[in-house]
Amino acid sequence: MKPSKATTKKQTTLEMASWPLKNKFNIMKTQIITLFTALVLSTGIAATTYADTTNSDNVTVLSDISVINKIEVRGNVQLYISDGNADQVKVYNQYYAESALVKSRNGVLSIASYKAEKLVVWVTAADLRSIAVYDNADVKSFGDFSGIDFAVELHNHATANLSLDAFNAKVTVADQAKATISGRVNEFDLKYNHAENVSSANLEAGKVSKSQTVVAVPAKPVVDEFAGL
Q: What does DSSP assign to residue 64?
């Protein structure tokens, strides 16, 4: 039995009336997914990199940080950097209980911790221009890090894994430090002590300048075999 024209018209009217509800439901669904994704990104660092030693709830947001143009990292620190409209520092440990040093002065953010467990810090900056990393500290970019001029210095046994989107990038890898650089830059200036400690295979660069600094090994003192006679 075929439906009557009146019944078909009524069904069509109901379907048209339900379209706004469906669209509203889809919008709400998209908003929920977007919110969930943002929460995963914001908590992912704490959950994945420090889950073995620290509860992800132990997060200290430093509110007395104003402008960050340079970051200096020393000791046993895991640093993440990302772009943002405002500067913010999050420490994913029991910050004050561990006597770690995180301070800002004249645009320079200093981070230091010498405990056995890594101090995990996430820095969001609007105008970060340089990073200097020492000791056993490690720095990683959270996504592509953008900037016009960006300089990185690695010393001692420091490590870095950075994805850059910059106009000019200057990277210095000294001592036994190691660096993995990827992304896109217009001009790339690289200085290093050991070529095997630098990986830039996934870096797209318009102009590249590389130079190796040979570390001089101090000569052994000459022993005078007749000195004791």
A: S
Please calculate the CA angle 171-176-182 and round it to the nearest 5 degrees: 35
32: its two tokens: 């929920």
Give the burial class of 218: count Cβ atoms within 10 A of its Cβ; 0-12 exposed, 13-18 middle, 19 or more buried: exposed
Sign (positive or negative) of CA dihedral 176, 177, 178, 182? negative
Strands 119-125 and 88-91: antiparallel
Arithmetic mean of pLDDT, 5-32: 43
pLDDT at 93: 76
Q: Which residue has the tokens 């000569």?
A: 219
Name the helix (H) or strand (E) containing 103: strand 101-105
Report helix, strand and coil shares of the chain as percent, to nearest 5. 20, 45, 35
Give the pLDDT confidence score for residue 214 in this predicted structure. Answer: 76
Q: Tell me 76's DSSP state.
A: S
pTM: 0.71
Cα–Cα distance, 49 to 150 (Å, whole number):
26
On whether the CB atoms of residues 162 and 179 are closer than 8 A, the answer is yes
Residue among 188, 185, 184, 183 nearest 173 (CA): 188
Judge contact between 160 and 120, C-beta under 8 A: no
Q: What are phi and psi of 133, to 5 degrees?
A: -125, 135
3-state secondary structure (DSSP) of residue 16: helix
Which position has the token pair 């995990």?
Answer: 120
Residue pair 93/50 in contact by the 8 Å Cβ criterion: yes
Residue burial 33-46, b: 16+ Cβ < 10 Å; e: rest: eeeeeeeeeeeebb
